[in-house]
Amino acid sequence: MPPAFGTTTATTLLQATQSEVFAQIRDDVLLSSSLWVNIALAGLSTLLFVSMARGVSSPRAKLIWAATLMIPLISLSSYTALASGLTVGLIEMPAGHPLGGQEVLSQWGRYLTWALSTPMILLALGLLADVDRGSLFTVIVADVAMCITGLAAALITSSYLMRWVFYGISCAFFAVVLYALLTEWADAATAAGTAEIFDTLRALTVVLWLGYPIVWALGVEGLALVGSVGVTSWAYSALDVVAKYVFAYLLLRWVAANEGTVAGAGAGGAGAAPADD
User: Fold this and answer.
1) What are the residue ranges of helices labelled H in the chain?
2) Considering the domain boundaries, does residue 159 fall inside one?
3) Is 272 domain-assigned?
4) What is the pTM of this model?
5) Burial degree of 35 (CB within 10 A; 0-12, 13-18, 19+)
6) How high is the pLDDT of residue 270?
7) Residues of the chain with pLDDT under 50
8) Structural domain boundaries enclosing 29
9) Cβ distance 124 to 197 under 8 Å?
10) Are the C-beta atoms of residues 229 and 105 closer than 8 Å to each other?
11) Which of 18, 99, 112, 188 reaches 20 to 30 Å from 200, CA-CA?
12) DSSP symbol at 159
């Protein structure tokens, strides 16, 4: 950037680029609908979950509720940022990529969404299963690392190989999350008496979360076998609808109907917090 290129000029270009991206999203019906449908569902889910919270009194159930309520709230904010063009940008794909040299619309804000919302999903599941704090911390950190390295894979334009390197690193962190969900967390849920709903939510989470790296690999960010940004965006959005809102509804409905079991797990489970003096 030349020294004479001042802050005002840079800001103007940034605003112009954001305006252009916003217009591109608005004019692409397939792409924009994939975002606005999620905005509407996130808003409706938030209102529904708040109304479902009435009558919940135990501290552990309230904590699960709070973590779960953050899921649609985060999605509402992040999808609005995507639709506005705030967290979307044009990047030029590196040489070797099927779309090498072409500018592609990157919805990098999705990775920020996942970095904030998926830890809430895992926190709610961990509290439900009454896992120990060390395991809960490890899995949540691995999850955030998975999202951040996934963001790196999506944004790297210097090397096509390095995109896949970061993709592999992200998948390695994902493997840590999967291992915990499929082994020790399942055992903890059995001990806590919440295995019935935990097994359902775990299966839902594992199957749907496996869909995200598959969409990345097949979509415009990876092999570009699906070359449409709108189709790729809808694939991510459809996964989000079930992995977040349906997941949250099933969890909160069960907690409301089985609050005594949840409270008992917190009082006597392996991961229970010590009582206050």
Assistant:
1) 7-27, 29-52, 59-84, 109-129, 133-155, 160-182, 184-192, 195-218, 229-240, 247-257, 259-268
2) yes
3) no
4) 0.88
5) buried
6) 41
7) 1-7, 9-14, 16, 268-277
8) 21-265
9) no
10) yes
11) 112
12) -
Neighbouring CB atoms inside 10 A of 209's CB total 20
Is the Cβ–Cβ distance between 102 and 182 less than 8 Å?
Answer: no
Report yes or no: 71 and 110 within 8 Å, Cβ to Cβ. Answer: no
Three-state secondary structure call for residue 18 = helix
- Residue 134 burial (CB count, 10 A): 9
pLDDT at 218: 96
pLDDT score recorded for residue 84: 94
Q: Does some domain include residue 258?
A: yes
- The CA-atom distances, in angstroms, between 187 and each of 10, 190, 199, 257 are 55, 5, 10, 22
Packing angle of the helix pair 259-268, 59-84 (nearest 10 deg):
110
The span from the CA of 255 to the CA of 249, in Å, is 10
Tokens for 170? 């992200």
DSSP bridge pairs for 105: 90
Q: Estimate to the nearest angstrom the gap between the alpha carbon of 43 and the chain centroid.
A: 16
DSSP 216-229: HHHSTTTT-SS--H
Cβ neighbors of 184 (< 8 A, separation 6 or more) are 131, 135
Question: Over the stretch 27-62, which tens digit does the pLDDT of each residue have?
Answer: 999 999 999 999 999 999 999 999 988 878 889 999
- For residue 83, the model assigns a pLDDT of 96
The radius of gyration computed from the CA coordinates of the chain, to the nearest angstrom, equals 21
**φ/ψ of residue 226, rounded to 5:** -105, 105
Nearest-angstrom CA–CA distance, 139 and 141 = 5
Dist CA 98 CA 84 (whole Å): 28
Cα 205 from Cα 224, distance rounded (Å): 25
Q: What is the tally of structural domains in the chain?
A: 1
CATH code of residue 124: 1.20.1070.10
